[in-house]
Design brief:
Number of helices: 4
Oligomer: single chain
CATH topology: Immunoglobulin-like
Order of helices and strands: HEEEEEHHEEEHEEEEEE
Largest sheet: 5 strands, antiparallel
Shape: elongated
CATH architecture: Sandwich
Helix content: 10-25%
Amino acid sequence: MRIFKKVLLILLFANILRIIPGCCKCDEDLGYMSFNRMDIKNIDNSGEWAMTSYRDTMPAAAVAFEIALFDSLGYYYYSSIPELKSIGFNTAMALSCDCARPLQANYHLTNIKISTIYSISEEIEAGADVTGLFVGRSSGNSSPGNSVYQSLSSIIRQTEGKIYYDGGVESFHIFLQPEVKNTLARFVIDITLSDNSIFSDTTNLIHIVR
């Protein structure tokens, strides 16, 4: 009899857990946030998948970076579920719903400018504006085999009116098209928003390998 009661209790608890997600009520009201930080990471684009790299080396023909703009407050949240709390479920159980609130940036991207600190070749000298030598791609499409590169202007246009479900992070990869002839590479990236504010940061110093 005791074993039967234990099995019954386990089954009852399992069914309660299955019911909980169906009781979740997520807040679908659109929230607003503002980009206030920019982060630049190295990208290893030498293999099948482009991925974040912490190495300071890149192949001469595979120089790439990830740019992320975000609100440092995060805006990750869990929806409150008063219905569950009122019948005895604790806060930790309610938080298991894990709702993502739709967010829109108050100011979208309007311009990307990239300047090279070191010469790329004899024709492309240090200090040159090399924005046009880069193409981009959403960070979600990191496989070279199944996605198409975009112009940076195309990436910029897509941020206007964009709805974010990932805590308000605008992230994309940029790829330098010509091969770097120098032994070093480093770039200054300026991003302008629609309120005319500018984020400026410098990539890590990259050692070119052949």
